[in-house]
Amino acid sequence: MSATLRTFIAIPVTTTPKLSRIDSKLREIGGPVRSVDLTQMHLTLSFLGETRHQQLTEIGEAIDAVAQRHQAFEVEIAGVDAFPNRDRPRVFWAGLSPTEDVVAIAEDLRNSLEELGFHREQRAFTPHLTLAYIRGKPPSEVTELMDENRKTSFGTASIEKIVLYQSRSTNKGPQYIPLSLHELRLG
Q: CA Rg, the chain, in Å?
C-alpha cells in the first residue's frame, strides 16, 4: 500500500438533461476535446494532493465541522466558459448561480485546512463544473458551443454534502473514490 493518496474535497453534483446534451456535443467534437464522465461530476472545493493515510481522520473531522456550519441549498447551473480564457480554452466548464454559499463553504474549508498545515490555494476560487479538457488547438466548434450557451440555464442542483475523494489514474481516465461523506445541515 502506498504511503499517500492523491485527494481532493468536492461537492458531488448530479447531471441534468441539458448538461448531458452539451456533453454529447463535446464528445462529437472529439479530437483535442476530452469530455469528463458526468457520473463523477463534482464541484471541487480544495485539491489536497498527496495525503498521508494518517491525515484522513483529521481532514474528515475538519470537513464535518465545516458541513455542520452550512445549510444545504440549491444552485442553478448556468452558462459555460473556459479557463484560462475563451481565446485559449483548456478547461470547458459550466457555472453556478448564486455562488455566495459555495464560496462561503470553500473559504471556511480553506481556513480549516490551513489550520491542519495544508497550504492555502493562492488563486481565487471560481465555482464551476468541469465538462471537458482541451489539449492543443481547440476546434472552432468549441467556441461556437461557448457562444451558443454563454447564458443557458442547465437546470438546478442540490448542494447537500461535501466529500473527501481519492483520485486514481486509470487507463480509462480518472476514478474518484469517496473516502468520507459529510452532510450539510438541513433547513
A: 17
- Contact, 94 vs 22, CB < 8 A? yes
94-114 tens-digit pLDDT = 999 999 999 999 999 999 999
User: Given strand 91-97, what is the order of strands in its sheet?
Assistant: 33-35, 128-134, 91-97, 73-83, 153-159
| Cα angle: 69, vertex 109, 75; to 5 degrees | 70
Given this model, what pLDDT does residue 172 score? 78
Could you tell me which of 16, 108, 113, 102 has the C-alpha nearest to residue 60? 113
CB of 150 within 8 A of CB of 80?
yes
84: left (phi over 0), alpha (psi -120 to 50) or beta: alpha
Report how far apart, in Å, the C-alpha atoms of 46 and of each of 110, 144, 167, 183 are: 7, 31, 13, 17
- Which residues share a beta bridge with 94? 80, 129
* pLDDT tens digits, one per residue of 146-158: 999 999 999 999 9
> Where do the domains of the chain lie, and which CATH numbers do they carry?
4-183 (3.90.1140.10)
Q: What DSSP state is assigned to residue 39?
A: G
